[in-house]
Amino acid sequence: MTSQARLDAQRERKVVEMKRLKRSAEARITARFKSRQQMEAIAEALRPEMFYPAGEKANARITMRGRTLKLQFEARDSGALRAILTSYLRLLGTAVNVSRSVLGLEINYTSKRAHAMSSRN
Description:
The structure is a single chain. This protein is 64% helix and 20% strand. The chain has helices at 3-20, 36-51, 78-120, and strands at 25-32, 58-65, 68-75. It has a 3-stranded antiparallel β-sheet. It is elongated. The mean pLDDT is 80.
């Protein structure tokens, strides 16, 4: 058996196991943002965690509509749900703080630049 065939078989076993497992805990988080651009930037910051999860006990899904970001979580048990919620809430909080800081810097830069341009005239 080639190494690729072994990897394929291993992936297939994981898929079958995940289908067999009954999800027993779930949660949803909804966040509304001031702009769609900010919401999309924060969703992009969270996406890598979805594609490369730390474990197999829980998963997350992100959906966007308008300026609303929805996070849905499913887990085998309440402990796994608590772990994934804690992780995503920390990531979400950090992304929001960075977004606010960047927006503040952009506003300050723009207003200082506009002030400098107007004082030249």
